[in-house]
Amino acid sequence: MEPSNNKQLNTTKLFIVAGLVLLGLGMIYGLTGAIQYLVPGFLKKYFSFEKVRPLHVSAVVFWIILGAMGSVLIYLQQHTGKKLHAPMLTKIQLLVFLFTILAILTSYYFGVFGGREYWEFHPLLALPILSGWILFLFNVVKSIGTLKNQPVYVWMWLTGVVFFLFTFLESYLWIFPYFRNNIVNDMTIQWKSYGSMVGAWNMLIYGSSFFLMEKISGEKTYSTSRMGFLLYFIGLFNLMFNWGHHIYTLPTHHFIQYISYVVSMTELLILGRIIYEWRASVSAARRHFHHAAYKFLIAADVWVFLSLLLAICMSVPAINIYTHGTYITVAHTMGATIGINTFLLLAIAFDILHETCRSFEHNNKLFNRTFFVINGSLFAFWISLILVGVMQSKWQMSEPRILFGAMMLQLRPFLISFFVFGLILTIGIVIIIYPLIKNQLLCYFTPTTNQDHTPTVAKESMSDNDLN
After folding, report:
1. Which residues have C-beta within 8 Å of that of residue 426, sequence separation ≥ 6?
2. 11-466: CATH class
3. Where are the domains of the chain?
4. pTM of the complete model
5. Number of neighbouring beta carbons within 10 Å of residue 70
6. What are phi and psi of 276, to 5 degrees?
7. Residue of 283, 277, 275 lying closest to 347 (CA atoms)
8. How high is the mean pLDDT of the chain?
9. Of 54, 56, 71, 390, whose CB has the highest number of CB atoms within 10 Å?
10. How far apart are CA 389 and CA 396, in angstroms?
């Protein structure tokens, strides 16, 4: 195939570029919330905590969703060697999501809420998200065509798209009084839908990661291996049942909790094993060319291990009683969201966006330093959250309890650590994603092109300009 010329900022790339912007915003909103723990009332008039928290959560969630959608749409075309079935629907889908996300973030600014957890915006704004996802589902299904002899990442993409739609609808059952009026059923469905939703977008991200690993290594064995399909079926089982560990404290059926305890760790275990074994097959030349993407894949593998350790502890019912509702749960979420999902998506983003009219070579030294700073600060950030959670747990279970304000004063040194390392992490993430966004925009608006420096290993996939 012809060398890839990625100057054109096409629709599918815009999903990832927009996602990277949301990642930066999400980190800044999170940092603002961390300051408000230390300085109560900070920016209260304009950005009170009840606004900052959903701004942070929604921006990060939509980064994951847009990044996952863009990855699937681009890699699906590279897999089939064809354009998407309906390129115009992709443009409509992108516009629907961008305008809806803008409306959601704006509604938070004005204090307009009405939803739950991940979706704290007014339920009416869920309708365009639903319609945009249906367009995505249609395009993916029609572009895949036949399922005969398809590699595992295609099955992951298809499963993730279908189950996200199901769980998204399920997460809005609370609008009906039949579900909302029973507190146990309401909370069970809410946590079930959110846990399964995470499993659904994990399918999209893991599938794209499989494709990227094969692209880097040049080996086509991983996506058809028994271990690959084992991860798929374990992931599907997790998607359906691993949410049960969220509801240990609810008076619901015990068999759900037992099943979730058994399956909740297996997905990460298999994923970690696959990445660990895969890196041995990557030659030095390919590792050098896919420098940033390779590094983020390896970093994600380390965070799989760390998240697995914490998840094992949290999923033991006797321990979960103490950790539930504390910052230990937040540490688990942050570790998985940043260390696994975000790092995998950044690996994919570097693979898709790194070839532009401007070379990234001069950024390599800064990238290497920032990469280690990001991982070190994330680890310290993660440990700070765990320590805060341990002290919270001790306070919750103590009799008699000291005053809440006194407990918060005891937490202050750890909250300062949480903020400082969160600040370093945020700066590092912005430094990493800035060249990706800047180069795409400059190459789109600048008529000059650079010479083709694309190594042979990069010329195996279809040109992006030949796609959507």
Report:
1. 27, 28, 30, 31
2. mainly alpha
3. 11-466
4. 0.88
5. 28
6. -60, -45
7. 275
8. 83
9. 71
10. 10
